[in-house]
Amino acid sequence: MIETTALSPGLGVEVTGATDLLDDALVARCAEALKWRGVLLVRGANLDDAAQLAFSRKLGEVVSLGGQEIFKVSLDPSVNPAAEYLKGTFHWHIDGTNDEVPIKATTLTARHVAMVGGGTEFASTYAAYENLPDDERKRYDELRVVHTFEAAQRRVNPDPDERELAAWRALPPREMSLVWRRRDGRRSLAIGATADHIVGMAPEEGRALLDGLLEWTTQERFRYTHEWQVGDLVVWDNTGMLHRALPYDASSQRTLHRTTIVGDEAWA
Prior knowledge:
It is globular and about 55 Å long. The protein has a single domain (3-261), classed as Double-stranded beta-helix (4-Layer Sandwich), CATH 3.60.130. The chain starts with a strand and ends in a 7-residue tail after the last strand. The chain has helices spanning 24-37, 49-59, 125-130, 134-141, 149-156, 162-169, 203-217; strands spanning 3-6, 13-16, 39-42, 71-73, 105-112, 120-124, 144-147, 174-177, 179-181, 187-189, 195-198, 223-226, 233-237, 241-245, 255-261. It is α+β, with helices and mostly antiparallel strands. The strands form four sheets. It has a seven-stranded mixed sheet with strand order 1-2-3-13-5-15-4. A three-stranded antiparallel sheet has the order 12-6-14. Strands 8-7-11 form a three-stranded antiparallel sheet. The chain contains seven helices and 15 strands. The model has no long low-confidence stretch (mean pLDDT 94). The longest helix has 15 residues, at 203-217.
């Protein structure tokens, strides 16, 4: 018998009792739970790459980069050539803030886990916005924010050389509403490590506002921390959830396999 249990009061749901994750009725139920709870967990799913891709395709079109649909998340350069950039994922972020249409959802399966650290945290920008005082919601509704890849990378490397800086700035900035008015009527916050500045606001004032909003959004009541076990499947709504990896030793062999689902709603 399939059952669902809340992972935390504010977000997340665990699915138990599922024997066939590719069953259309089950996938539809998972998609609905994901919409309203933001994070979906199936412990011990033990999906191989083919099964993970098949499940992902039930949720939408899978992103392919250079012909690759499975991305290996590891700090080991021999496993992941982009390992150095992954250090930026230790900070709260939303994937695709520099794209016109962000990723819709992400799936991760755990192949190796760290003995110490290496969990993944999520925070609901839906719940954070909905629980703001009325006067703050009205203020933020009118603001626009600029996201840059550079802003996130400077958290890891605050003193880049010219080559690094040029590479970061090759990805153009993206301006959007601080409050994302969704087509279904809900609203979420466009914040995180890539949030560089507020349009028309003094840098110090804008930075204080963005830092304060991030602190508000990532408080415990809007947050869920996942401690990985080998075989876990976790799926999240990238458009409404901040996420970050908790630090772990690069020698731990922690390896997750990731797929990403093509988005269908542009930033406002």
